[in-house]
Amino acid sequence: MQQWARIAILGAMFVVAYLLILAWQKDYGHADSKPQQTAAVVSHEVSADLPNSQTAAPSSDVPQANIAAQQTADATAPVSQQLVSVKTDLYHLWINPKGGDIVRVELLNHDKNKDSDEPFVMLESDAKRTYVAQSGLIGLNGPDSARNGRPAYEVEKTAYSLADAKPAQTKDGKAEKVLTVPMVLKTADGVEIIKTFSFTQGAYPVVVSYKIVNRSGQNWQGQMFGQLKRDNSEDPGKSDQGIFTLGTFLGGAWGSPDEHYNKLKFANFNEEKLNVEAKGGWVAMVQHYFVSAWIPGELKLTQADGQPFAAKLESRKSNDDMNIIGFTSPTINVPAGTAAEVDATFYSGPKIQSELKDLAVGLNQTVDYGWLWPIAKLLFLGLQFFHGLVGNWGWSIILLTVLVKLILWPLSSKSYRSMAKMRVIAPEMQRMKEEFGEDRMRFSQEMMALYKREQVNPLSGCLPLLLQMPIFLALYWVLMESVELRHAPWLGWIQDLSAMDPWFILPLLMGATMFIQQSLNPQPADPMQAKVFKVMPIIFTVFMLFFPAGLVLYWICNNSITILQQTLINKSVAKDREKRDGATPAN
């Protein structure tokens, strides 16, 4: 009974792990999409359908304003302007002065792949892919409109770097360097709009602010919007694992103080489209290891202090099948002779939980650990702690395994002791089987009496496997979702713990340790069960060939410690039996 239970649990682990891969792919993998239309190259304006806000359709690029639009003359002729290059210690990005959209972002601290020194490209707009961050002012007097197209801002220069940054103080009194990139738009009726991008050294968040200075004789009205626009191309950050193509969720996400984290597939941007008003909310596009997000900020009127505003969070499809998710502020009224400021924070970079949680409630949950997130979170915190000590994620996994085994040692020791007793009394059970032959009722009675006399629980050997299953699956999610382990080397040939072992050495070692561990367990009396038991290490070895090397490393360490633990317990039980019976312990 015990052996069948163990085999069933081993088989269940195999099936669950396999179904986990399939479910992950179905839920998070990005299926082949419709062929995307060719986008303009990065040195040109991002093409867009810019309807009049009064007649805006849900599929439009620019969101529909909640006030009537002012009818203006058509001025859709494109304006050719050089992109503004901004380089910090973390970013190299480009801003299009026409509209002030961010059209390309390169992450300098993250390489394109483990074999390349090129930076990872987060946003881009070229013939292969369109993924941009747009922002502007719409409404009655907003310069972004369908009839006029995007406004052409004036810029002081076309290249900025941290050398241009100025010292500033944060709210907590810390000194930091802030690089500001201003863009100016002056209208014929005397309204000046200053759009400013503020970059802080060592930080990914970018503050995008608008200052509206109304020197006209009339009231100015408009709304700020910020949105992410992306085509249906595949996730450039997904990992190719041989026969498995492992990818995490690719699509939209949003959150609010009431609903912290919600996912929205690209296919549902229209059918189940987002339409929520929230103060303290956010919208994002999520991919493997990285995220881009807009977090609405504050509105400041005249000399009053800035106050967070309730933004409308929306998603939709554009006319050219682009996926758009963004926010729109309430109507901003700027009386003649006054000024107002409104801002939002833009983030485009790695999913670092410690940074995301400070930006908005729930944004850190874009690091999606699945339904086992409580265990995964604890495992990640443990990995972070050990990494702070040893500076290597591979050794951190080993130390974490030791810690987990120590925590589970008391429970697993009871199970292994019961298994060791089963091993010792195996000859006695075989004798009873031969003695009672076909009398199964008598054999079962005698066997239960033996278990009671020897204080053996035949099902206790299943406990270690049951304890390890959720840890195994949670660690899988940690390795797949934690950008800190992306391309993280261990030693020798293992240069990426989040990818499979290129030489398959670790899976073979895992199979060997699993075989040794099973040899320490009581062997099934039934020949068929014994054969199934022997085949399990081979099945798991083949399956582990395509799992992340870090996960296989964990399993090797876990098996190795289990072998040591079982060996010590087997010897202790055998000695106790020898002392009690005065006989040689069974092999």
CATH architecture of the largest domain: Distorted Sandwich
Using only C-alpha atoms, the radius of gyration works out to: 31 Å
Average pLDDT, rounded to a whole number, is 82
Helix content range: 25-40%
- The level 1 CATH classification of the largest domain is Mainly Beta
Transmembrane segments: 6-24, 393-412, 456-479, 537-556
Protein name: Membrane protein insertase YidC
Domain Membrane insertase YidC/Oxa/ALB C-terminal: 393-571
Biased composition (Polar residues): 50-60
What are the salient characteristics of this protein?
587 residues; alpha+beta; Beta-galactosidase, Chain A, domain 5; eleven-stranded mixed beta sheet; membrane insertase activity; chaperone; membrane
List the topology elements.
Blueprint: H1 2-28, E1 84-87, E2 91-96, E3 101-111, E4 119-125, E5 130-138, E6 154-155, E7 159-161, E8 166-169, E9 175-186, E10 191-200, E11 206-214, E12 220-230, E13 239-241, E14 244-246, E15 251-255, E16 262-264, E17 275-279, E18 282-286, E19 290-301, E20 307-308, E21 310-317, E22 323-328, E23 332-334, E24 339-350, H2 353-356, H3 373-390, H4 393-424, H5 426-436, H6 440-454, H7 463-481, H8 505-519, H9 527-544, H10 549-581
Keywords: Cell membrane, Chaperone, Membrane, Protein transport, Transmembrane, Transmembrane helix, Transport
Protein name: Membrane protein insertase YidC
GO molecular function: membrane insertase activity
